[in-house]
Write a structure and sequence with these properties.
By secondary structure, the protein is α/β, with parallel strands linked by helices. The protein has 22 helices and 20 strands. Strand 17 and strand 18 form a beta hairpin. The model has no long low-confidence stretch (mean pLDDT about 85). One of its GO terms (molecular function) is nucleic acid binding.
């Protein structure tokens, strides 16, 4: 039947039933004729129970009319999503070992059920183009969600309710992971409505909003990271609403109407597989991980954080300064296989931190590299400071750390030629040369020395001064020819300043050293040096 009529708009086939809907009588008549003709061509006959041109019909426990879809008064289960939780005080009286006691909770429950049964809501027709909202919530028992659409008058009307219980694995999730699961599960269940269009997810768990929207993927806890990836095929706008506005979804989650389906189990297995991969990548043996779990459970500070992750974080920041640092990072904390993690990093308990610091600095890496190593596997509040202190106080690193050189202080450039001159001696081909080079023009003067004495140097200098003039400053190294008493008198007699470079540091007289290399190279190439 579905195959025969599948291309006719406004026709719905369910088993051997056919529904034809239209917005006006003329269009409706055309569709009815088309359906009848198609059935006749296929050789099919209709039951005499057929009804034509009805404003209202009953179908599969629903009453369908122009206003929308409402419950058949005889079948209200789908349209009373919170009836299970509302009847809990009454059902407690039916238990075998329960004492009969009709008090205020039972009276309140009885009145609420009467109100529910006497005022069944009308589910709105889903309309393409209208703003859609998924209100999703999670409790310790289950997940609940409602698909809403904004009507032309601005009201929010429900299109569909869903709920289910949690699997045993899901019950071990941190609160924030359960909320992320609820949003992902609801989006996938309502995918036929919202796929390809923008919609809004409402959650009463504020820390979840950035994790599902703006936060970088690698900075998200692994389980939530997988939920975020599954949401990427949709186009949600995740917003926070107060718990007072999540009454319907909250009630659905506390009284789930169905068990997890195979698709729900697959969703959980997918997220758990990614979380398990995170544990497998941790640089620790299974024995060491078990030791860490034991220490986490015995550490008062970390134990409290584990409880917050499992039962929910307080709305206000704790008074304990140590817990405040965790509270500020609550969205990144999660428990996987009983291990408290900060994203993909192990939260190290207090009495194991010194051991972990020693492990980080085992190869005597610097501060930056130790911090980078910690970012791959370990975390506790303000971990950067202890790492820096560990490296700074390491005696091995201090002993082998290279001594920082003083920054070079360049000399000022001379204002005119031959005001500052560098001087040096060098040997080549069995001869000793005296070299002078001008700092301003780089002009060299070379003389051969007959003897390696101060007197011989002074004679050559005087001959150069006669030609080029007396410089203001003459720079040399600390050679014996320049350090003698005879040479010290020479600058005084000729009224110039003699300065020496740093001892055992030829680079200090770099101008002369560079000129020596150049002149040596030229002389070695010359045929008549």
């Amino acid at each position: 039947m579905s195959e025969i009529l599948k291309d006719i708009y406004g026709v719905i086939c369910h088993m051997d039933d056919i529904l034809i809907h239209s917005s006006d009588q003329m269009t409706h008549n055309k569709r009815v004729r088309t359906v009848l003709k198609r059935l006749q061509e296929a050789g099919l006959t209709l039951n005499e129970k057929c009804e034509f041109s009805k404003d209202e019909i009953k179908f599969l426990g629903h009453i369908i009319d122009g206003r929308g879809i409402q419950a058949d008064p005889q079948k209200l289960a789908k349209f009373t999503p919170d009836v299970t939780s509302r009847t809990e005080p009454l059902r407690q009286l039916l238990k075998r070992d329960s004492l009969w006691s009709w008090n205020h909770p039972q009276d309140e429950s009885f009145e609420a059920i009467k109100k529910i049964l006497s005022s069944t809501p009308v589910l709105a027709h889903y309309c393409v183009g209208r703003e859609s909202i998924i209100a999703a919530d999670a409790s310790n028992a289950g997940l609940g969600a409602v698909l809403l659409q904004i009507q032309p008058d601005g009201s929010r009307r429900p299109v569909s309710y869903i709920s289910r219980s949690l699997t045993s694995a899901e019950k071990n999730y941190a609160v924030i992971e359960k909320e992320a699961l609820a949003a992902t599960w609801a989006s996938e269940r309502f995918s036929e409505y919202i796929l390809g269009s923008q919609y809004t997810i409402e959650t009463d768990h504020k820390p979840l909003v950035p994790l599902l929207t703006t936060k970088e993927l690698h900075k998200i806890p692994p389980t939530i990271q997988r939920f975020r990836l599954r949401l990427m095929r949709f186009n949600p706008n995740v917003i926070h609403v107060s718990g007072k506005q999540q009454i319907t979804a909250d009630a659905l989650s506390r009284a789930p109407a169905s068990l997890p389906s195979s698709a729900d189990v697959a969703l959980v297995n997918d997220a758990d597989a990614m979380a398990q991969q995170t544990l497998d990548n941790l640089p620790a043996s299974s024995c060491k991980l078990q030791d860490i779990i034991t220490q986490q459970q015995s550490d008062p500070e970390v134990k409290e954080i584990r409880n917050f992750c499992q039962r929910g974080w307080p709305a206000l920041m704790p008074q304990n300064p140590l817990l405040q640092q965790y509270w500020a990072n609550q969205r990144y904390l999660t428990i996987i296989d009983d291990i408290l993690l900060f994203n993909h990093r192990i939260v190290v308990p207090t009495n194991m931190r010194l051991e972990m610091l020693n492990k980080l600095h085992e190869s005597h890496l610097g501060v930056t590299k130790c911090r980078a190593l910690a970012e791959t596997s370990l975390w506790w509040p303000n971990i950067s400071s202890p790492i820096e202190n560990m490296v700074r106080k390491c005696s091995v690193c201090a002993k082998l750390r290279p001594v920082a050189k003083e920054p070079l202080l360049p000399s000022s450039f001379p204002e005119h030629p031959w005001s500052r001159v560098a001087m040096d001696l060098f040997d080549l081909h069995g001869k000793t040369y005296l070299l002078l080079v001008d700092y301003h023009s780089r002009w060299p003067e070379i003389r051969i020395l007959d003897h390696l004495t101060s007197a011989a140097v002074i004679i050559r200098l005087k001959s150069i001064f006669v030609t080029n003039g007396i410089p203001d400053v003459l720079v040399s190294d600390n050679g014996p020819q320049f350090a003698s008493a005879e040479f010290r008198k020479f600058p005084e007699e000729f009224s110039f300043t003699h300065t020496t470079s740093s001892p055992r540091y030829p680079q200090a007289n770099g101008e002369a050293e560079r000129a020596v290399q150049t002149i040596k190279n030229l002389l070695q190439k010359a045929t008549d040096p």
